[in-house]
Predict the structure.
Amino acid sequence: MAEIRSRRPALPAVVAPTHIGTRLHMTTPADGPSSSSNASQAELDALVQLYSQSRLDDAVTLAAELLQKYPDCEITHNIGGVVVAAAGYRDEAVTIYDRAIALAPDYVEAYNNRGNVLRDLKRTSEALASFDAAIALWPEYVEARINRAITLRAEKRFAEALVEIDMAIGLNPDIPQACTSKGNILQDLHRYDEAVIAHGRAIALDPNYFAAHSNLGSTLLHLKRLPEAIDSYVKALGLAPSHALTHRNLGTALKGSRRFSEALPCFEKAFGLDPSDDIALGEVVFLRAQMGLWVEDDLKQELLRRLHDQGSVSPFHLAAITDDGALQLKNARRWAEQNFPARAPAAFAAAADRTTLRIGYFSSDFHNHATMALMIKMIERHDRDRFEIHAFSYGPQKQDPMRQRVIQAVDAFHDVSGISDEETAQLSRNLGIHVAIDLKGYTEDARTGIFAAHAAPCQIDYLGYPGTMGAPYFDYMIADLIIVPEDSRKHYSERVLRIPHSYQVTDDERPISPRRFTRSELGLPEEGFVFCCFNGSFKISRAEFDIWMRLLTRVEGSVLWLLADNPWAIENLRREAGNRGIAPERLVFAERMPVSEHLARQACADLFLDTFNYNAHTTASDALWIGLPVVTKLGGSFSSRVAGSLLKAIGLPDLVTESLQAYESLALELATDSARLQEVKERLAANRTTHPLFDTEAFTRNFEQLLVDADRESAGRQSPIAPAA
């Protein structure tokens, strides 16, 4: 909240559209004759006018002249500091404000403006001291209190920020930027319903207040009230059409509504308006992949170039774009530093001998979700004589049968959806959780901040996100020798807990529908070979697709059965098939259906073809459970090695390849040699009940032992050692 004013009581200011701060509220020095040490009214008016017209080069030139002409005029220094800061010379602006304060130690506006610039320079402790000085001189200085709250929020000191903004609103309840700032803080505290009210109050005070509409959209987005979020973003952009971040946020809301063709232009617009926005670029590249739009690979290469430099994007998106483990680690570290920095170390109860280990699972997916489909039986089979199991749920309160199974399976179920990350971590510490396990990683709706706030003395990431978190507060990750071979350990910030066989838990009692599908009812030919891949469309790239089309060319009468992920992918993949000389109708798309029926219909396929950078994970487990062979290729990252891990755990290492050529040759051999394919299917059927992949009881015991060993090491004892295979 920069102010150009004389030292008179402050008037309300207006929030700047580009961030939750304020722009200048311009008043001029009190009327009176100028002196040789003070700039004249006309000179100050000229400087303010240049600033107001955004003629910053001219304004800086004039400011320099006035500062040289009037070295002892504090008002000239305050205005000069605002102008110089707006032009990007923030360090120089601090020096100019320092001079204004030296000339007039009670100049509250200069302290306030200095604090804003220091915050922009990331010198937040000095910024807070500057705001404190202004408030000490004038306790009713509302603007300084608002800016102090904004700075505390930037420091993630949300509880203190809320106290400060409430004080500002208590002094003047009719300042719109105070209300929307409160809404942002309440959102940070996961008090979303209250945040909606606060943003609504700001809009009631000023219906044309861009920031309040945009911020309301973001709160509604968190609440999954997507149509309302979209409406708020559209209103905001009507007021500020060139605001890049709001275009990106609108794209996110549209993408969440599966309106991909509308979301993509929003991300492209955001990147066009702000070419430094790596996240917007990442969204463009990822969404184009999800839609099967394989155009402008130069954007993908530009993204990778930026990430090799100092950029960062969603680690989940990057997993589908490249299997470069070193780059994924570099990106994850920057992502964690920028978005989820470690909080101050927490105090934990002193370690003591204990017979019961308290385990906390943290997730938004304690309902009918792929993660729970894999994990539920292990949760139910934990040894309650040795372990006390807690579930910390911050997702939607879906009252489905899976959620009820989880609630019945654990010792305590904690709904933390309405409290902050810090409060959740404190709850975990108060409960004495020894090992906290993050089941989300960097996937949608994750709350990594809980772990940044230190929920337990031992913290592990597992299952939900296939890669390194790159954060110092995660002690361990769980993998196996296929997922993380010895020469790849350097690509993971965590210590690797190696579990025998495969890292992926499974449920060896998953129900398969008794329904017997016919090929014709699924749109498949009654005769002919059926290749399939039920991975999400974002995993499919040119590399796989080129091979798949060559297989269709060489295997007469064959078809490729894919998941009907979205209508744009269907249209674009069929077009790509046509471009490669394959009749588009040879690509058949399967609509979504209940999981047990989806499992049953896979009996109509002959061979599952895996994707490369991001393998089949749960989908590979599904295929193997139903008896459908999977051909995969090992890559260089966690996500590109999962299917290989599953196949080796079920005794089918011969279906794991290490090159594009070997992958294609093996798939062609199995499709053209019925005896070989039949032998593989028979071996899979036999191994299904005799090999480790689908032995939940044995997996649970191995998993528990790793937790015990990790807990011991976190208390300064021996290194974790996986149990013998």
